[in-house]
Amino acid sequence: MKQDTQIRNSMIIAIVDDDDSVRTALESLLRSCGYKVKTYCSALEFLNTDGPAQTHCLISDIQMPGMSGFELHKQLVAMGFHIPTIFITAYPEALPPLSTDTPALIAYLPKPCDTNKLLNYIETALLQQN
Description:
By secondary structure, this protein is an alpha/beta fold. The protein is about 45% helix and about 20% strand. The protein contains 6 helices and 5 strands. The chain has a 5-stranded parallel sheet with strand order 2-1-3-4-5. β3, α5 and β4 form a beta-alpha-beta unit. The radius of gyration is 13 Å and the shape is globular.
């Protein structure tokens, strides 16, 4: 259990979503579970900071103005970042199946997210980084 706490305290989860209420709710949930969290209102904001280099797990909306979550993920891979990613979306029926062709993709989750599933996927992502 102590090791789990150390992992949570030393690894950063980035949340990228254009919906302020989603960012705030996820940030509150994850901080209450002991995680370090950084939030970004767009894919471009995330890319234009040191976020990619600091992030150990990425939670990203898929449909955002400017650059989608899929485009963000593709850009990160092109830049050499293979950040374990959990996509969230309000339109789960439009999702392609999970593919091994997409490096570091952990899961797709519908909005609102099932808290237990999200936390389990985050633990999976962080263990890949450890």
